């Protein structure tokens, strides 16, 4: 996706920046108007990477950042230049080129951001988190719906599309290694943007696709893919976060604090109004609201919280070795990269401590009915299926958590297991097989049969 510029014309911005940047502009591509009283802050985001919405798509839609800037009362008029990208790599390139002040991206791109910033003399800092999953469920490996591939071992000799250097690539590498395969030798890795990879999977030029949100869920909802591997099987946290150019943060801490306060407001809005938030994001991105809700809903795969939790920092440290092995970075000083002083100040010490200690909600099934502004929650998969069976014409989407990993998935795309009277959902064949191995008499059943049993 090409960047969208929504404020000053490029020529005017550049001319103004050249004249007045030392006096009044923010860092990066920020620029000041001729009278020195207007400042432009440039924010790079990924509209369709929907676990960054509280620092991007949703935040932009709600206008909270602009309102926070207006409330600074410092006599400056602020403008926000929102720039939309498909992945984190071009945001990093623009930050290190001095053209973006604040950016949001996934964990592996964040580490590359840290490495490139230091290497090019434009150091950046991780200042908050957007969406995360403590088990790694934000990344999924999918195959075409008619594929005979049933396990990671079946990928040997196959063509697998991913975006090299992304969190989804990291999931692919680790998953293959755990399955006893060499990611460099045993598969043909296709380095493709998510949309290109999705097209390749549909056309048959890729046998599998390892991608981050929202692509696996989107393809599953569209009936163009089925899950082969749930990233949560790794049981390693994955996250998205906000990075800021260090010079910008130091020169304009009030502006960065305003951004982080606005991010917290957007997070609270998403938590309080998950259906409305999903529809806002869907409207802005063109994604189906049902797919957005799969990841960002009340029981969604992602938990949103700007606090930088210690377990997420430790996960970043473990990610460094994967990037080093791929020769995408050298050593990364994660402790130096992480800087929570700004978000701690924005939230206040007490609230920040409370958010650090908060645990993600326990996953539960949900049904979204036509016209409803709230979803219905269910205590068991069987109860959810019974409701779906009785209200088929009214159901917009039904979601169930994997029995072992907790990853939410579309009920009609899940692998269902009947174990006595219990009906149990799984995202991928591997987790279902693991359950079957320890439960004699249990068996996989089609979704239609699971609905019939429940009703």
In short:
This protein is an alpha+beta fold and 455 residues long. 41% of the residues lie in helices and 21% in strands.
Distance between the termini: 45 Å
Secondary structure category: alpha+beta
Domain tally: 3
- Gross morphology is globular
Major sheet: order of its strands?
2-1-3-10-4-11
Q: How much of the residues is beta strand, in percent?
A: 15-25%
CATH homologous superfamily identity of the largest domain: Periplasmic binding protein-like II
Tell how many strands the DSSP assignment holds.
18
Number of helices: 19
Structural Rg: 22 Å
Could you please say which CATH topology of the largest domain applies here?
D-Maltodextrin-Binding Protein, domain 2
Name the CATH architecture of the largest domain: 3-Layer(aba) Sandwich
Uncertain ranges: 1-25, 27-34
Q: State the name of the first-level CATH class of the largest domain.
A: Alpha Beta
Largest sheet: 6 strands, mixed
Q: Estimate the helix proportion, in percent.
A: 40-55%
The averaged pLDDT comes out at: 92
Protein name: ABC transporter substrate-binding protein
Organism: Streptomyces violaceorubidus
Keywords: Signal
Domain SsuA/THI5-like: 89-277
């Amino acid at each position: 996706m090409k960047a969208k510029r929504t404020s000053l014309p490029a020529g005017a911005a550049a001319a103004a920046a050249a004249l007045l940047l030392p006096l009044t502009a923010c860092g990066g591509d920020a620029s000041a108007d001729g009278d020195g009283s207007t400042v432009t802050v440039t924010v790079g985001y990924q509209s369709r990477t929907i676990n960054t919405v509280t620092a991007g798509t949703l935040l932009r839609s709600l206008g909270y950042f602009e309102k926070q800037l207006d409330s600074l009362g410092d006599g400056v008029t602020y403008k926000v230049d929102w720039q939309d990208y498909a992945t984190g790599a071009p945001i990093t390139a623009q930050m290190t080129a001095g053209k973006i002040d604040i950016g949001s991206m996934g964990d592996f791109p964040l580490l590359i951001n840290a490495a490139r910033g230091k290497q090019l003399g434009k150091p950046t800092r991780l200042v908050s988190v957007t969406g995360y999953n403590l088990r790694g469920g934000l990344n999924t490996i999918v195959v075409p719906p008619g594929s005979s591939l049933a396990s990671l071992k079946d990928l040997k000799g196959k063509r697998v599309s991913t975006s090299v250097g992304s969190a989804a690539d990291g999931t692919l590498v680790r998953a293959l290694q755990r399955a006893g395969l060499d990611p460099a030798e045993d598969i043909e890795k296709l380095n493709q943007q998510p949309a290109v990879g999705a097209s390749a999977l549909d056309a048959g030029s890729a046998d599998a696709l390892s991608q981050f949100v929202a692509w696996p869920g989107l393809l599953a909802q569209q009936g163009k893919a089925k899950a082969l591997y749930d990233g949560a099987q790794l049981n390693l946290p994955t996250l998205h976060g906000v990075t800021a150019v260090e010079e910008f943060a130091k020169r304009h801490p009030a502006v960065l604090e305003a951004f982080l306060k606005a991010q917290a407001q957007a997070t609270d809005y998403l938590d309080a109004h998950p259906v409305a938030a999903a529809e806002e994001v869907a409207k802005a991105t063109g994604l189906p609201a049902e797919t957005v809700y799969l990841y960002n809903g009340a029981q969604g795969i992602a938990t949103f919280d700007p606090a930088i939790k210690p377990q997420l920092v430790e996960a970043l440290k473990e990610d460094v070795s994967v990037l080093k092995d791929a020769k995408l970075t050298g050593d990364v000083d994660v402790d130096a990269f992480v800087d929570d002083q700004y978000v701690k100040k924005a939230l206040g010490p007490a609230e920040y401590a409370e958010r650090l200690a908060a645990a993600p909600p326990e996953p539960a099934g949900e049904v979204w009915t036509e016209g409803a502004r709230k979803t219905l929650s269910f205590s068991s998969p069987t109860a959810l299926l019974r409701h779906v069976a009785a209200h088929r014409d009214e159901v917009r989407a039904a979601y169930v958590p994997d029995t072992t990993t907790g990853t939410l998935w579309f009920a009609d795309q899940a692998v269902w297991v009947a174990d006595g009277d219990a009906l149990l959902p799984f995202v991928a064949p591997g987790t279902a097989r693991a359950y079957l191995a320890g439960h004699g008499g249990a068996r996989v059943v089609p979704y239609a049969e699971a609905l019939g049993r429940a009703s």
